[in-house]
Amino acid sequence: MTSFVFKRLSQAVIVLIVMSILVFTGVYVIGNPVDVLISPDATQAIREQVIAEYGLDQPLWKQYLDFVGSMSTGDFGRSFVFNMPVGELISQRLPATLELAVIAVLLASLIGVPLGIYAGYRPNSLASRIIMAGSILGFSVPTFWIGLMLIMLFAVQFGVLPAGGRGQTASLFGIPFSFLTLDGWKHLLLPVLNLSLFKMSMMCRLAAAGTREVMTTDAIKFARAAGIPERTILRKHVLKLISIPLVTVFGLELGSTLAFALVTETIFNWPGLGKLIIDSIASLDRPVMVAYLMMVSVLFVVINLSVDLAYAALDPRLRLKGR
Amino acid sequence: MTELLKVENLRTYFETERGTVKSVDGISFEVRKGEIFGLVGESGSGKSITGFSLIGLLDANGKVQPGSSIKLAGREIVGLPDQELRRIRGREIAMVFQDPMMTLNPVLKIVDQIAMAIRAHEKASDQEVRRRAVEALARVRIVEPEKKIDQYPHQFSGGMRQRVAIAIALLHKPKLVIADEPTTALDVSVQADILKEMKALVAELGVSMIWISHDLATVSQISQRIAVMRRGEIVETGTVAEVLGQPQHPYTQGLLDALPSRARPGELLASATTESSGPIVLDDLAKTAPKAADGAFVQVDDVDMVFERAVGRVGRFTQKFGIGQPSHAVHAVKGAKLTIAQGEVLGLVGESGSGKSTLGRIICGIYTPTAGNVTVGGRKVREGQRKLGTGVQMIFQDPYASLDPRRTIFQSVADGPLAHGLTTRRDARAYVNRWLKAVAFDPALADRYPHQFSGGQRQRIAIARALAMQPELIVCDEPVASLDVSIQAQVINLLIELRRTLNLTLLFISHDLSVVRHLCDRVVVMHHGKIVEEANVAQLFEAPQQPYTKMLLDAVPKLAV
């Protein structure tokens, strides 16, 4: 196990180095931030002063090394636009996205998996057919459209839920969260629902397919032959046997929701990371883009590692091999 | 003795897309208290479906028909609601399945699986459950049960897993245990032990048992009375001595005749079915056959095979610094030495894990040995060698897995010869047909797909595919192990005839000593990767020299009549 973790961590370092080069050069190609930052009628002297201040007069490799150097000390630079440290900027926005993504993925699993197990357990019942048809709808209808429909219906037509914003927040460990207040929950409900529909459908179909397969195995027949109640069989045998693909998708979805919830965040005017990155791309705010993309890489590396460790926890056969 | 189970006119039908399948069609029998009742038949005879009907665990499209009656200790169980049936399962009727690798849930600890089975029928505290789990494992002779209950199934051997399954079945001291091929997937020595123990347990606990099997020998060993099933009906029933001693029905007689152990070695076996057997080998094929010659055609010198788990660079680094555990290598073959003469059939026997399949694959060039040399016809075998691709061919155990389901029979057989230039696209049809005819397979069916054929036919196709490469040596890895006796007899007959006409050189890998005795000239016995004995067939079977060989021969179940 130790050598496994060690191996994965060293792979992660390589991934991060490659990512930093890609991100840095990629962002460099997008455009020159000087054009956006400085008003066109500034004098040449001011122009050069600003360029030198941001270190943009240095050759690319030097800029990269400086960037890596300050990154390693935890300094992500200052945002050109907001004129504040990027680390601070991101940590301001992170909690909003974090609670949105985590609640959405949890909701998707808690609803999707049981529905899927049911649909796989009784594939021919009417309810199962409705579940399976609904799940196809769930991941084929585009997110932005569902978002707009939700706003139309609940905010405009019935006026029961707010159309956007985070609402009232309460702080936990000094960080503001919406899920701690009733008003916050009202604001969370629609974006969470919007974000989780696709994931829910996917979890549901995965669980259904897994359950159908597992139900025909000898292990389940043997459990039934011992007179074990169906409910126990589903809860103890089936759930554990189908969990590996579910955990994989859970991890991937959590990562991608944290990083790319921007459609939903834009529609519901949610002050999270998705909006921040879109804004910074528009204004060529290089430090924010770079720091954000690096954070996403770290996030995926960490999630994948935890998923691998979860495999070992779920399936004892992998523990021996993973040594 | 009083009767415990009385089955009358049991009919179980399955509704499928192609109409109603009458899997069990009006059978009646009874099982007495404390008796072991054998239910024998080939695959598709309905013997397993009978077992599942009794315990009420049919697939969704199967149904016990009205008018059927199953009485357990006088109580009718046909038509009971699901809840009632569940209460009977495990407590009054229990079941053990064929494949112990599949019946236990791989991701749950043994103690948890036993706990669920206990709590299915009664309330028990965690301590109570542990105590009873230990007791249950001890009853089926598992050593150190206190330690073993906290392990997972993959840490157990096949025989031990089957013991655990039996322990679970016996937890509530049921009145009836249905055992569906419980020893088929096990090695002979393990099988012999389990047979003995099951007999003792049945006597000790006073339970009755239905022993479902295709293997006449094991059934005759363990049961008092047996019934022979064929196509959903019981054709004959009575005591073991009556049914197997003086069979009244031609089908029973046919089954007995198909057993290689009852025929003289090398002779064609009587085939129990009417399906055409006996190859139509064409004269021109026979003419091209090589002449038998003395001396070593295949030579295996001091071959060693060590499988090491790939550790990679980082793994090696961590091992060096003592962070990771050292990887354990598996020494599958140790210093193997053997020769096969041209035209000879060499049997390679051993239990699972003995290294016999690994050695077969090394001879084929699928694996490169860690040390040692293999030569076929004077040429060295190397991994992935193209020319040798035609020189050595392999026939595998499972004809369902060894044919590509998406390619027609013609395509599967033609692929190899086309790739190696043994035929041209234009002549491929005629070329393939010749070899299909050689294995008595109707060439008119060559454009169909594998799933349209039975196991026996598929194995013929696999043989034709190997022959079409015109190999110098064919390695057969358990080619008849997954086939019914009557089909097995046909395939053995085919191999015997092909061997005579084409003068084939065969390496025949098998765990079934009676088949080896019937087919082979010489036998090599492997144990834990080493060759322990090598002798002519007659010599080996009459006067085995090594204790391991003796044990193997003793463990083979024999017809008890």
From TrEMBL, chain A:
Task: Please report the stretch or stretches of sequence annotated as the ABC transmembrane type-1 domain.
Answer: 94-311
The protein's matches in InterPro entries, at most eight in alphabetical order, are given as: BPD_transp_1_N, MetI-like, MetI-like_sf
Entry membrane topology: Multi-pass membrane protein
- Keyword match Transport: yes
- Span-the-membrane segments of this chain are 12-31, 100-121, 133-160, 172-193, 241-263, 289-314
Superkingdom of the organism of origin: Bacteria
Is this entry keyworded Phosphoprotein? no
Provide the coiled-coil residue spans: none
The protein's location, in the record's own words, is:
Cell membrane
Q: Which UniProt keywords apply?
A: Cell membrane, Membrane, Transmembrane, Transmembrane helix, Transport
Give the protein family. Answer: Belongs to the binding-protein-dependent transport system permease family.
Return the protein name: ABC transporter permease
Originating species:
Mesorhizobium retamae
From TrEMBL, chain B:
Is Nucleotide-binding found in the keyword set?
yes
Give the location in the cell.
Cell inner membrane
**What is the name attached to this protein's record?**
ABC transporter ATP-binding protein
Which keywords fit this entry according to its UniProt record?
Answer: ATP-binding, Nucleotide-binding, Transport
Protein species of origin: Mesorhizobium retamae
Cite the PROSITE patterns for this sequence: ABC_TRANSPORTER_1, ABC_TRANSPORTER_2
Q: Name one GO molecular function term.
A: ATP binding
Q: How does it sit in the membrane?
A: Peripheral membrane protein
UniProt keyword Cytoplasm present: no
Similarity remark:
Belongs to the ABC transporter superfamily.
Principal place where this protein is found? Answer: membrane
